[in-house]
Amino acid sequence: MAAYREGPQRLTHKECVTIAGILYRDLAQNFEDNPGEAEIWQLVRNANDRAASSPERMEHWFGPSADELLSKLGIKTDRESRKALLREVANAFNDAAAKLKRNAEGDFRPDPVAERFPKWEAANSGVPKANGSGGALTPTELFELWQRHPDQKTVTPSTLASYSAVFENLKAFLVKRYGAEPTAPSLTRDDFRAFIDMRSEKDAVSANTINRGDLAAINAVFNWAVEQDKLTTNPADGVKRKVRKGAEGENKKRKTINEAEARAILRHALNYPARASRREDPKLVAAKRWVPWLMAYTGTRVGEVAQLRKSDVAPFDGHPAIAITVEAGTVKTKSTWHIPLHPHLIEQGFLDFVAKAEDGHMFLTPRPDLYRPDAKASRTNDPRGILGPLQSVKNKLAEFVREVMPNTGNGPSPNHGWRHRFKAVARQYGIDLEVRNAFADHASVSVAGEYGKDELYAAMVAALSKIPRYDVK
What we know:
By secondary structure, the protein is mainly α. It has helices at residues 2-6, 13-30, 38-51, 55-73, 79-104, 139-148, 157-178, 189-201, 207-227, 259-270, 272-275, 282-298, 302-306, 343-348, 350-356, 387-402, 417-428, 433-440, 457-464; strands spanning 313-316, 319-324, 337-340. Strand 1 (313-316) and strand 2 form a beta hairpin.
């Protein structure tokens, strides 16, 4: 509000470069630990170059990021300053993409580009800072306000549960440090550095978990508080646990299921019904038989397969498919799309199994009777009673896989490892990146990604002919 009262401000060239540097560091640091594939960042650079070809495209492509940051800094620019700023933002985004491409290729040498950006000093900029009210709100109280706000209506119960655990840990740490939980505005970066040190040393939590779990939750809530004028700044901004090469141990955790493990798991699943106890829930027996095979040929998340209903298996555009939808339970991206079934699944009798199954969920039994409206936010806080049984099935599937793929401490996740394997195999056999992303429900980085996954369905069907069969007999 102070910025609007003052009116548009002219930024110096140095200030434009400095503000662009904030966006550079945000992008470069957030993806540094897990940059993905190098080709992704080349596509980003190509998209940036196309966007920089005209003022209109620059405004559409870079404007929203600039506006969000300017709002946080309490700045309203004049027209010429904005044009100059967007040019610097375009350069910064390209520099960040180039840096992340190097990281993806295994080059983590010190980043010389970051040194070209001056440090932002709001107090000396001549631009008024936005006023915020922190009052006596503690981090716990901010989290409770965040949780009740309409913005969070679409947040999944599992996310709420994980955030709740983070803020409980943070409160316990602050109470031990100060004797009582201090107010959020009084916290400093040193408090958060000490918190993540404690999580690393005492709780033995990995750097990736700290960055992508603890700090992601804290920053989501504190940045929301800044946007809502409940805080002036986010005291945790920029705090990060550095993931250094070899720091997580000499035997870094492998994410992808290898060929031998894949065959062992699928053989174990194929023969399971004949070995199952008569007392075991038939739906769990079916899950052990079919879920590993479905993940092997689709790259889908284990929960999205384990919550399939009979009605979710049906022809789509002339080919048998499974539908991934939030109506069945929970979907990470809250989207709905279809995945074609590999011919090998059909030959094994999956469609026959579906035809004989009762209506409803095929691999779990919902328990709405266990839901309490006044229950604390958790994975089971679901009136439909799906999420609790779903988590149980996922856990039992992991135990089932561990029977033939022992946990050596640095091996892949028994369930999630299939997603990494599917994408690796698809890349090996020349399947287009956008099609691979459509199977796995991963975000797109190109113009083609503006189309929905179902628009790529024909390409997904064609891709199945390239995915080799698993011969485990």
